[in-house]
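Lab notebook, design round three. We kept the backbone fixed and only want residue identities now. Task for the bench partner: fill in a sequence for the structure below.
Input structure tokens:
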């Protein structure tokens, strides 16, 4: 079968590699977002998918709007059986959705109709979910509301960060995508409409989401820190200086201090009162410095009980 693969970030890379390695599938072209200027030096950087496609010697197409007539004509010329979309980042027009002979197929990182949108992995951890998963679906004109094909459940470990879970889901999703394509071609794939009444949404993550509200419970804060690690990162303030928080544990110690107050800062421990429960800060990063364990931070910075985060 011949496909056009559309994807952009790291999540799409395992799927591209797995499809490229399958002798039954021909990748006619890889479509990805345009190169971007990033970092302090504003250097032009390729997307993760473009880097992989070039390594695999696959033809690459880029456009800031894949729905333009001239770009649609380029895609139409490939006469692809499928268009496969994994975290591409642009909405496809109905004309584009009708291009392939078989269908446009999408791999989405949630158990739809839960967490439609661009940040389902972040949201699953932030919300304290114990199970999430991947869904393959036929693409429709809406956002992630097409008929489902297959789903796979993936357990969320207690200490998973969004980075940990992202990598597992990307790898497992690649296998699900292969099964989906082959079963559709064989005529054995199921098709199940989503229940729109059960839909929830995972909108684009903003950096401000990472600011810790110490009035929330220890469990809520713990999940937030995991759910924004490594990006965009959790943070708080101490004496007006911004500090990133990378790792926490929930302490069994009890305290009646005000939320955000540091109740212990010695013997390699930093304990902070939350709105409900006490939190042990295990790894943090002062502005302009590297990540430090609690013990290394206490060796190099002044921190006293009674000071307050936030």
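Proposed sequence:
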């Amino acid at each position: 079968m011949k496909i056009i693969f559309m994807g952009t970030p790291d999540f799409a890379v395992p799927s591209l590699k797995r499809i490229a390695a399958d002798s039954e599938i021909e990748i006619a072209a890889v479509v990805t977002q345009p190169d971007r200027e990033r970092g302090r030096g504003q250097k032009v950087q390729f997307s993760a998918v473009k880097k992989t496609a070039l390594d695999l010697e696959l033809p690459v197409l880029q456009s800031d709007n894949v729905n333009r007539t001239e770009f649609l004509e380029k895609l139409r010329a490939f006469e692809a059986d499928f268009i496969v979309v994994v975290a591409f980042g642009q909405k496809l027009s109905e004309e584009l959705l009708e291009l392939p002979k078989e269908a446009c197929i999408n791999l989405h990182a949630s158990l739809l109709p839960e967490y439609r949108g661009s940040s389902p992995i972040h949201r699953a951890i932030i919300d304290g979910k114990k199970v999430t998963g991947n869904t393959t679906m036929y693409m429709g004109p809406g956002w992630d509301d097409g008929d489902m094909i297959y789903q796979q459940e993936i357990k969320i470990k207690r200490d998973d960060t969004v980075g940990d879970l992202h990598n597992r889901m990307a790898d497992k999703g690649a296998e699900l995508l292969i099964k989906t394509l082959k079963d559709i071609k064989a005529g054995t794939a199921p098709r199940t409409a989503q229940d729109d009444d059960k839909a929830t949404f995972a909108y684009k993550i903003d950096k401000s989401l990472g600011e810790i509200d110490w009035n929330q419970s220890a469990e809520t804060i713990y999940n937030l820190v995991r759910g924004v690690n490594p990006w965009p990162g959790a943070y708080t303030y101490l004496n007006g200086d911004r500090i990133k928080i990378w790792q926490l544990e929930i302490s069994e110690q009890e305290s009646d201090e005000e939320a955000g107050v540091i109740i212990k800062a010695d013997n390699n421990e930093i304990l902070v009162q939350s709105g409900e429960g006490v939190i042990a800060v295990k790894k943090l990063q002062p502005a302009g410095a590297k990540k430090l364990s609690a013990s290394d931070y206490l060796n190099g910075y002044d921190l006293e009980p009674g000071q307050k985060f936030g």
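Keep this in mind before ordering anything: The mean pLDDT is 96.
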